[in-house]
Automatic annotation (TrEMBL):
Coiled coil: none annotated. Residues 1-22 are annotated as: Disordered. Pfam families: UbiA. The keyword Lyase does not apply. This is Decaprenyl-phosphate phosphoribosyltransferase. NCBIfam families: PRK12324.1-4. The chain crosses the membrane at residues 62-82, 107-129, 180-199, 226-247, 259-281, 293-311. Keywords: Glycosyltransferase, Membrane, Transferase, Transmembrane, Transmembrane helix. GO terms for molecular function: glycosyltransferase activity. InterPro entries: UbiA_prenyltransferase (IPR000537), UbiA_sf (IPR044878). It is found in: Membrane.
């Protein structure tokens, strides 16, 4: 008998035949995962400005801040899809990123690019419909920064740190723009330094993983000592700035809740630096889900600040 050669399988599906239901479900689930919903926690930054101003619990600002959160979830997912589509080759060299839906082949590149464009357009349309033009401008700025980072800026040493940290600051500023809250210099400085701390910690953790320099070209230009020093400078400046704000003269003398918030704030910064120094900073958002001590410290900080802002 003559053996019959197996029929080649078309990875995109045979022409004229619908894809198998399991394949469709797998691709759909992969696309949702590629949008990185776990990282949407970063977009909670849009709530911080109205919360610090004491208006977050009012119905209108709460609705505006909630809508802004959704807008930035759409915009950030568009950036993640574009980044992963452009990084397919490098991600396949990474022990964890190689399992991402686009790198593993579960989501075709053309679907990733198309979905990114749709999400970005939806975010812009929603920001325009929400009303405040500063918010629309910030969404445009965010999408511009994330796109420029993916295409070119991530290959520029130090600039890559500033751009990613800047995206966090844009999120925070958008919350103020959406709710009409004026951002203080104290707020902007603390958010900027905190963002730089987390971004630098992520690069440091990536560099500590041996053999991963090829997955991100700028890592070859950094050293662990340099990144640790940047992290130390950012942490120190952030602590000083926060203390100056918390201890500024107010209506009531003595130990106010705002002054008392220095203690949990300091503990949060110290805990973050400890975890990053152990190499756990590659996915900063995961620390909030996994580290119980950090959760308790952040909870204590939130309670004390809430007493300061919303208390009598």
């Amino acid at each position: 008998m003559t053996a019959t050669a197996p029929t080649p399988v078309d990875p995109e599906g045979a022409a004229g035949s619908p894809p198998a239901p399991k394949a469709v479900r797998a691709a759909g689930g992969g696309l949702v995962a590629a949008c990185r919903p776990r990282q949407w926690i970063k977009n909670l930054l849009v709530l911080t400005a109205p919360a610090a101003d004491g208006v977050l619990l009012q119905p209108v600002p709460l609705a505006q801040a909630g809508a802004t959160f959704v807008i930035f979830c759409l915009a950030s997912s568009a950036g993640y899809l574009l980044n992963d589509a452009r990084d397919v080759a490098a991600d396949r060299l990474h022990p964890d990123k190689s399992a991402r839906p686009i790198a593993s082949g579960r989501v075709p590149l053309r679907i990733a690019y198309l979905t990114a464009a749709v999400l970005a357009a939806t975010a812009l349309a929603a920001a325009f419909a929400l009303g405040p033009m500063p918010l629309f401008g910030l969404v445009v700025l965010y999408l511009t920064l994330t796109t420029a980072y993916t295409l070119a800026l991530r290959d520029l040493v130090v600039v890559d740190l500033a751009v990613v940290a800047g995206c966090h600051v844009v999120r925070a500023a958008a919350g103020g723009a959406a709710t009409g809250v004026a951002l203080s210099n104290w707020y902007l400085i603390v958010v900027s330094l905190g963002s730089l701390l987390l971004v630098t910690g992520r690069r440091e953790a990536e560099l500590r993983l041996t053999g991963l320099v090829g997955t991100r070209p700028t890592l070859a230009e950094y050293s662990v000592d340099y990144l640790a020093n940047v992290r130390s400078v950012a942490s120190s400046a952030m602590i000083v700035t926060y203390c100056l704000w918390a201890l500024a003269p107010g209506t009531f003398p003595g130990l106010t809740p705002r002054a008392a918030s220095i203690v949990p704030f300091l503990l949060v910064v110290l805990r973050l630096n400890l975890l990053i120094g152990r190499g756990a900073g590659e996915q900063p958002e995961h620390l909030l889900f996994q580290d119980r001590q950090l959760q308790l410290m952040l909870g204590a900080l939130a309670v004390v600040l809430a007493a300061s802002i919303y208390g009598p």
